[in-house]
Design a protein that fits this description.
5-stranded antiparallel sheet; 6 helices; 3-stranded mixed sheet; elongated; 31% helix; alpha+beta
Length: 258
């Protein structure tokens, strides 16, 4: 497993604080896990404590570019488990689960809202905005300390565009769409290819390699249409052959005039 910080990792993205955080016991786990993850070159996304299997502590993490592989989860689990055992932020036995944020991921940092502009999101506010706490719509980018949302759940007397202060958001996550799935698959394939190249499991791309032009297609090209508007009459029918034979013998066609 290579160190994700090797190479050109944006230090600002790595140290970027979360604007959406958890309360209670999850906050105690965050205080322990956050610095460990950052030291390894990962970003903490979300901590969720549930009653599954008695007690499960789920820690979502990612690389600064938003990707996450199975090897990353395994490396984090090996490094974080002994640290949590010593810090003991939860007073009972629990099962530790390290995972990626998933396709319909939570948005917790300013860069998340910037990166996924144009995608459908659901937002729940800790502080009501215009008498509402729940919003849904297309993420239209970040303006100052707020995110602009083009709502698709408006009533007739409401504005479609709203500005929601990021620090007042208690939960924001992407909605699963075909466009989001396609983008996630593209990012995942690119990250897997780069990881294999870094590990020496795949050769680097040759210097002369060029990316295929998506505008070009491998489909067979249509044949040019040289035919006139009216379909021409056939010239090699039985009638034509008989007429040619009569002409060769010098016979006259009784149906023709002088």
């Amino acid at each position: 497993m290579t160190d994700p910080t090797a190479g050109s990792v944006d230090a600002d993205l790595l140290a970027e604080p979360r604007l959406v955080v958890e309360p209670g016991a999850a906050a105690r786990v965050s205080a322990v896990a956050g610095p460990v993850l950052q030291g390894m070159g990962y970003r903490l996304v979300r901590i969720k404590i549930s009653a599954e299997a008695g007690c499960t502590v789920q820690i979502m993490a990612e690389r600064p570019d938003g990707t996450m592989q199975i090897e990353d989860c395994e490396a984090i689990s090996r490094a974080l488990s002994p640290v949590l055992d010593v810090a003991d932020p939860i007073a009972r036995a629990y099962r530790l689960e390290i995972s990626s944020p998933g396709i319909d991921r939570p948005l917790v940092r300013r860069s998340d809202f910037e990166r996924y502009a144009g995608h459908l999101v659901k937002v729940e506010m800790a502080v009501a905005h215009q008498g509402r706490k729940r919003f849904r719509g297309l993420l239209a980018g970040v303006e100052g300390d707020a995110v602009r949302l083009h709502r698709d759940d408006i009533r007739t007397d409401e504005d479609a565009d709203v500005l929601l202060v990021m620090e007042d958001i208690s939960d924001a996550r992407l909605v699963l769409t075909d466009e989001l799935i396609a983008e996630s698959m593209r990012r995942g394939k690119q990250a897997e290819r780069e990881l294999k190249q870094n590990l020496g499991l795949a050769p680097p791309p040759p210097p002369h390699a060029t990316k295929s032009d998506p505008a070009k297609s491998n489909k067979p090209k249509p044949k040019p249409d040289n035919k006139p508007g009216k379909k021409p009459e056939p010239t090699n029918t039985k009638k034509h052959r008989l007429a040619a034979e009569r002409l060769r013998r010098g016979d006259l066609d009784p149906t023709e005039g002088d």
